[in-house]
Specification:
Blueprint (H helix, E strand, L loop, with lengths): L6 E2 L27 H5 L2 H48 L6 H10 L4 H12 L6 H9 L9 H28 L2 H8 L2 H12 L6 H20 L4 H27 L3 E2 H19 L1 H8 L13 H20 L6 H22 L6 H17 L5 H38 L6
Antiparallel strand pairs: 1-2
């Protein structure tokens, strides 16, 4: 039997997944001839028993899928909202967004070790670390991970990853977490526009409408605070972060395609290595130029930094590998559900004003995000559903008219005695 594996596109820390899962077809075993007791049983009862058993099996699978889906949505929502709020809390005592970005990105190195630990626990054919590494390196080509491949296929994504997270964290300093989280949801609209232009993806009118709603929501969010410079800069930063995230995803699909779980884990770990080797100099420069300065290492809130990094790592793990247990749409719902969570927290911890314009902007952007979650064949499914409903109504109307026409006749015939003929 051939082994099928899911392929995923590793995303930036704030991106939503596009994943492809191949379905494994099961083998049907030949049915053995019925025994004496089974042969004497009525055919209808046997068929009914098979139907009941099949329905019970399907319900168990659906319940399991729903359970894992709810768990994944909760993890995505909690980790994303928690990391946003914790970053906002960290900046009150540690005003260094780039240093926080660098510190959190270093934790990406744990992706491949965690994946290999899961491989050892789950896989029947266990491989050594070296064997698994070499197999995953085939994702980069026949020669594996060479120095040229590292700088041409990994380094650009490392830069985009850093920019996405830094712009997002810097925006949290300027505006409240609710506005940042809802504006970042526009990245899905940017992904569609870039995919349509660069990748020549299928044109969908409903997604164009969603992109227009996202742009309108950005304008209304800017208007909600009266176009103050502080607010405009923060909105520009988070829109830039969403654009970098969309560019990351589209370029990954253009240059590398899709990746298996092990290949995705290795790629994300490589981004962590790139961050240590080539990005470390930037926070050092910012420290000595006093752009991001702290008096001593004892003043650094290590608990907040580690907590933020763990939540961000959890978010990326669930977002990239949650396809193994549930649907990608549910994982995307976790991102949009983090908006009301941030709104509730901001309502009690900050001076955010939920005026009419801000609420309408949040609703418009959320609606656009939900429209982008519709599958490509949604219009075909909708037409089929409406056609089935029309056919069912016609059948019910025909049955009801038939019952009205034949009802009195049948009752009168049953009322006649046998000798009435």
């Amino acid at each position: 039997m051939k082994k099928h594996s899911a392929r995923v596109a590793p995303l930036s820390a704030c991106n939503s997944p596009v994943l492809t899962l191949t379905k494994v077809e099961g083998e049907e075993r030949p049915r053995e001839p019925p025994g004496p007791a089974e042969a004497q049983a009525p055919a209808g009862a046997e068929a009914g028993g098979r139907t009941n058993r099949h329905r019970w099996t399907c319900s168990q699978k659906q319940l399991r899928k729903v359970f894992w889906g709810v768990a994944v949505v909760f993890c995505v929502c909690a980790s994303w909202a928690g990391s946003t709020q914790l970053a906002r809390l960290t900046f009150k005592t540690f005003d260094a967004p780039f240093t926080l970005t660098w510190f959190a990105t270093n934790w990406n190195f744990l992706f491949f070790p965690l994946y290999y630990a899961g491989h050892v626990c789950k896989s029947t054919e266990k491989q050594s670390v070296k064997q698994r590494y070499r197999e995953c390196c085939r994702f980069f080509g026949d020669n594996g991970l060479t120095l040229k491949v590292f700088f041409t296929k990994a380094a650009p994504f490392g830069v985009l990853w850093t920019l996405t997270n830094y712009l997002y964290l810097h925006a949290i300093k300027k505006i409240n977490a609710t506005d940042v989280s809802v504006l970042f949801c526009c990245n899905k609209a940017f992904v569609f526009l870039l995919s349509w232009i660069v990748l020549r993806d299928r044109f969908m009118g409903v997604r164009i409408v969603a992109a227009i709603l996202a742009i309108a929501g950005i304008v209304m969010m800017t208007y909600a605070d009266g176009f103050h410079s502080h607010s405009v800069i923060g909105i520009a930063l988070v829109v830039g972060s969403a654009s970098m995230s969309a560019l990351y995803k589209v370029l990954f699909k253009l240059l590398l395609g899709s990746a298996k779980f092990g290949e995705a884990a290795l790629f994300l770990s490589i981004l962590g290595v790139f961050n240590v080797l080539f990005i470390t100099c930037i926070p050092v420069i910012l420290y000595f130029t006093r752009v991001e300065y702290w008096n001593s290492f004892d003043d650094i809130p290590w608990g907040n930094l580690c907590g933020f990094s763990i939540l961000l790592l959890t978010f990326n793990i669930v977002l990239n590998f949650g396809i193994a247990v549930t649907y990608p749409t549910l994982m995307s719902l976790g991102i949009v559900l983090s908006v009301p969570v941030n709104a509730v927290v901001d309502h009690y911890t900050s001076q955010i004003v939920f005026n009419g314009v801000r609420v309408i902007a949040i609703i418009i952007i959320g609606l656009g995000f939900l429209l982008l979650l519709l599958p490509e064949e949604w219009d075909v499914w909708l037409i089929k559903l409406l056609t089935r409903l029309k056919v069912r109504k016609k059948e019910e109307a025909a049955e009801s008219s038939g019952d009205l026409g034949t009802g009195p006749q049948s009752r009168s015939r049953r009322a006649r005695p046998s000798f009435a003929r």
